[in-house]
Specification:
Length: 262
């Protein structure tokens, strides 16, 4: 199984980021595209702290079942606690698992969903083949992933920002995956049914927004991947100083794909 990329300190950070209005809307669009129905069985690959899996569990209801897997035991613990708080234990379960080695029989699930997961997976071809294997005939696989080339962040020093982002994307196995996904899905035996763009746009330095919520993590990842801390600190200070109207701009494109198993 792959080593977990996220630990105890990341749970609260991700829960806060996932509460941002634009990410709540992203989950709504993902659920609408997936079209989960009462009584279906679904798999959430890389479930994180369990928000999407619990929302899908409400849609499949007590006659259905959603399973969430994540490489991080801390995320699984947080997901189980969420399900218990929300009274969903009868229709959702969580377990540590690996996207590239799914421990389920073939044709188990009506749908599989993976949001911001495959960009971390080195064996992405194998992971997609595994998703196809566990899908029933006619089942759906919904994927949301980011192409980090689409990131636009207004800063005082464009060269410094470029260095931050180049170091930051070193955290990902596949930082520019979406353009490749149609071909990869076809190679996995899946048929692309729908695709769309989910733009994330922030025009204010609002602590509740997605982009402000990831400034600190972006800085820390850039330092971890070789950027001098003083340069990363200056980048962060510039962004956080942009509190006046018209001074802040962030945009990032995520891409939603839905493929079916013939």
């Amino acid at each position: 199984m792959a080593s977990p990329l996220f630990g105890p300190g990341d749970v609260l950070r991700l829960e806060k980021a996932y509460a941002a209005p634009e990410i709540v809307e992203q989950r709504a669009r993902t659920r609408a595209a997936l079209g989960a129905r009462p009584g279906e069985r679904g798999l959430d690959v890389g479930c994180g702290p369990g928000l999407l899996a619990c929302e899908l569990a409400r849609e499949v209801g007590p006659a259905g079942r959603v399973v969430g897997i994540d490489a991080s035991p801390d995320m699984i613990e947080a997901s189980r606690a969420r399900a218990a708080r929300e009274g969903l234990a009868e229709c959702v379960e969580f377990t540590v698992g690996d996207a590239s080695r799914l421990e389920f029989p073939g044709e188990t699930f009506d749908f599989v969903v993976a949001v911001q997961v495959y960009l971390y997976v080195h064996e992405v071809e194998r992971a997609l083949a595994e998703a196809a294997r566990v899908l029933k005939r006619g089942g759906r696989h919904a994927i949301v992933d980011t192409d980090w080339d689409s990131c636009v962040w207004l800063t005082a020093d464009r060269d410094r920002h470029r260095r931050v982002m180049e170091a930051r994307v070193g955290h990902f196995a596949n930082p520019h995956l979406p353009p490749r996904l149609p071909g990869l899905l076809r190679a996995a035996g899946l048929r692309l049914a729908n695709a769309g763009v989910i733009p994330l746009l922030n025009l204010r330095c609002d602590p509740a927004s997605f982009s402000v919520g990831i400034i600190g993590a972006t800085k820390n990842l850039a330092v971890r991947h070789g950027l001098p801390r003083a340069e990363a600190d200056a980048w962060e200070a510039d962004l956080r100083s942009r509190t006046e109207d018209g001074q802040y701009f962030f945009s990032l494109n995520r891409f939603l794909f839905v493929a079916t198993k013939p």
